[in-house]
Specification:
2 domains; 7-stranded mixed sheet; homodimer; Arc Repressor Mutant, subunit A; alpha+beta; Nucleoside Triphosphate Pyrophosphohydrolase; 3-stranded antiparallel sheet; disordered C terminus; about 230 residues; elongated
C-alpha cells in the first residue's frame, strides 16, 4: 500500500492566507510537473515514527521547521492515486511570516483562494486535502488560541485580531476579541508601547512552545457586521 | 507495512463510561488471548475506502453499527507491533445503551476506569489509544453536542446532564447546562412531560443524523463544586 504524509503549510502575507506548494519533477510517476502539497512516502527503514517522517519530509521538500504541526486526518482509498490503493496522513502546519521563507527553488507560496477558486490546479486530491486543513483551522480559531502560530512572537492586539479575521473570514468586535485573547492567558505584556493614531498600543509577546488554549466563549460570538475600530 | 484500523467504542452504563473490548484468539500472531480494541487490517482488494474498512471491521469484530464515528489520530512507529513498523488509524465511536448489545461471544464491555487504572491489561498500545480517544471526547464535550450520541433518542435534560458529567468528570450547574444545550438547537420538545419529584420534566428528542453543534460558551464554564439539583 502507498503510504504518504502530506502537509498543508500556511502563513499570512499580503493580508491573506497562503499555502506552500511544491512542484513535482517532470519525471514523476504521476502528475509530472504539477504543483502539490509538500509530501512524501513513509519509509520503514528510515523513519522511527510518523512524527519523524513528517519532519524529515518537510525539511527535504520545503526546508522549513514549523513551530506548530497537527494531524488533521488520514485519507485512504483506491481512487486518489492512479497507481492504486493509497493512504495519506494529512497535517496542518502554521508558520509566522518571518520564518516562512523556503530556500527551495521548486516551492512557492500561493494564496489559498487561488486553489479554492481553481485558478491554481493541484496534483492528486490535494485541493480536497487543503480544504480539510482549512476547515480544521477555521473551527479551532473559533474556540482557541491556535492562530497565534501565524503571528510574530512580538505583536499588537490589532495585528492578531486581523489574523483571526483573515482565518475566520469575517470582522470581529474589538472589545470582545481582546477579552477572549487576554483571558486565555498566553500573551505577556512586554511593558513597551508604540504610538499609533489613537492611544499607545501595547506590545505583547508569546512563546512558541506555549500550548494551544481554549476560550471560555466562542470567537464567533465576537462577530460583528461592521468592524468596531 | 502493517496498516490497521482500531476503534474505541464507548457507551454509558451503570453510571460510567464503558469501552467494548474484543478477545484475540489463542492462536493470534501477537498477544494471543489478550483483550484489545476491536480492530483489523485494511485490505486493498476488499476495501474501497478507509471508511468502508472501518465499518467492515466493526461489523465483523463487534457486530455493531454506531451512529457516530470519527477519526482521532493515526499512530505509526517501529515499536508498537512486535512484527515491525505498523500504523493504525484510531477511531472514536459512540453508542447509546439501547443499541450497544454485541452478540459476539468474544467481546465484552468494561469500565474505561479499569483500563486507565491498569486492572484490565490490553494488547499492543491499546491502553494509550483508549486514553487518546477519551481525551478527544472530553475536549469536544466542553464545546459541543457530541455526548448526545451516548444518550437515548428520547431523553430528559437531567439524564443528558448526567452523561456530560460522566464524560467531563465533574458536576455541572443545572441552569448553565440547560442554557447551552437548548441554545445549540438540536433537541426537539416532544410535547410530553413526566412527573418527577419536582416539576414535570420535558421529554426531548434528537435525530441520530443531527450534526454535532458547537456551543457559544464552553461547558466547563458551567462547572460547579456542588451539584445544583
Amino acid at each position: 500500500m502507498i503510504t504518504t504524509i502530506d502537509t498543508v503549510l500556511l502563513r499570512i502575507a499580503d493580508n491573506e492566507l497562503q499555502v506552500l506548494l511544491w512542484q513535482r519533477p517532470s519525471d514523476s510517476r504521476a502528475y509530472p510537473g504539477f504543483w502539490a502539497l509538500p509530501g512524501g512516502w513513509v519509509f520503514e527503514d528510515r523513519d522511527e515514527t510518523l512524527e519523524q517522517a513528517t519532519c524529515r519530509i518537510l525539511e527535504r521538500k520545503a526546508g522549513l521547521k514549523p513551530d506548530y504541526i497537527e494531524q488533521v486526518a488520514t485519507i485512504g482509498n483506491r481512487q486518489r492515486d492512479p497507481d492504486g490503493w493509497s493512504m495519506t496522513v494529512l497535517h496542518l502546519a502554521l508558520l509566522r511570516f518571518s520564518c516562512s521563507s523556503s530556500t527551495h527553488e521548486d516551492t512557492h507560496w500561493v494564496p489559498v483562494e487561488n486553489v479554492l477558486n481553481q485558478s491554481q490546479e493541484l496534483a492528486f486530491d490535494h485541493a480536497v486535502l487543503l480544504a480539510k486543513a482549512l476547515e480544521r483551522l477555521n473551527t479551532k480559531a473559533r474556540y482557541s488560541t491556535l492562530p497565534l502560530y501565524l503571528a510574530e512572537q512580538e505583536l499588537k492586539l490589532p495585528e492578531l485580531q486581523r489574523i483571526y479575521e483573515i482565518v475566520l473570514g469575517n470582522p470581529l468586535h474589538k472589545r470582545a476579541f481582546r477579552e477572549r485573547i487576554l483571558s486565555a492567558d498566553v500573551l505577556q505584556d512586554t511593558g513597551r508601547r508604540v504610538q499609533g493614531r489613537g492611544s499607545p498600543a501595547t506590545i505583547y509577546r508569546y512563546h512558541s512552545d506555549c500550548p494551544v488554549r481554549l476560550f471560555d466563549r466562542m470567537m464567533q460570538g465576537a462577530s460583528t457586521e461592521t468592524v468596531d475600530e
